[in-house]
Target: RNA helicase
Amino acid sequence: MSFLSFIYVQRRERIERWRREKRLKLDVATAHSKLLDGIKKEEEDEIDPLDAYMQEVNKEAQRLVEPAAATTTAPEADSIAPKPESEQASVDTGEPSSNNPPAKTRQIGKGELIEAENDMPEYSSEEEEEDIIATALAQLQKKEKLGAVDHSRIHYPPFQKNFYVEVPEIAKMTKDAVKKYRLALEGLRVRGKDCPKPVKTWVQAGVSSRLFACLKKSGFEKPTPIQCQALPVIMSGRDMIGIAKTGSGKTLAFLVPLMRHLEHQTPLGPGDGPMAILLTPTRELALQTYKEARRLGNACGFRIACVYGGTGISEQIAEL
Model:
């Protein structure tokens, strides 16, 4: 295989790889846009002024960046195009021609360009630009290992974990009454020491008036079975693992206590990080959690940001 054929094969493989990555990114972007469209349709009536301002800033930044990126990339096809005959090098045979003066020789060494043959395909500058962008993204996505954090050397200010106060109606319930009530909650089963008794209403869980009004406005008249037991446990500052079927209300089971904790925290200062972090196993679940958290956060005066992979990070950085 000649050197020119080797270059052609490499370029063809890179372009095929770029096309596969582009199709994959397009599929991910399509699925992501469908999810965001569903969220945006429900949030059109409650647009945060700050979010609207940040969207305008992002659009203006993209309009300024795109022309600059287009001018920085030069088409590579022009660099391999054949040169005019007056500029091409001639081969020195050692005997000057009688008609033409001896021409200067040009030796092809490492790093110099070789003129393309007539049957070699030339690719557009758009494909070359996309290839460069894909290579740059691959370099940016390289993983970097983070060192272990020694929490013993970090001073964490104390904060309150227990916000739950058992109301008299729940405190008067006997063990048999609690057992019957848990059976009525779709056969709820509990394991652990001194587990709090399940509540019956939102007010018994100790939610604030703003949060209670938001729950009523969203159509949540009373807690679901998993929420009846999870709310007093998490409000008490206890660790919990909740297992329930899809659509049972697990998201609100930890978001409602989270909002109560955030309401009791001191305001953030310059350079402070987030007050709470929620981790989800998938991007779809992250968007679903973000949708519910944003609804409660707007009612309580908190800002919520969703960070996930498979899409551009510029907007996510702006939200953070």
In short: The radius of gyration is 32 Å. Confidence is low (pLDDT under 50) at residues 74-99, 102-106, 108-114, 116-124. The first helix runs from residue 3 to 43. Residues 157-266 form a domain with the Rossmann fold fold (CATH 3.40.50.300).
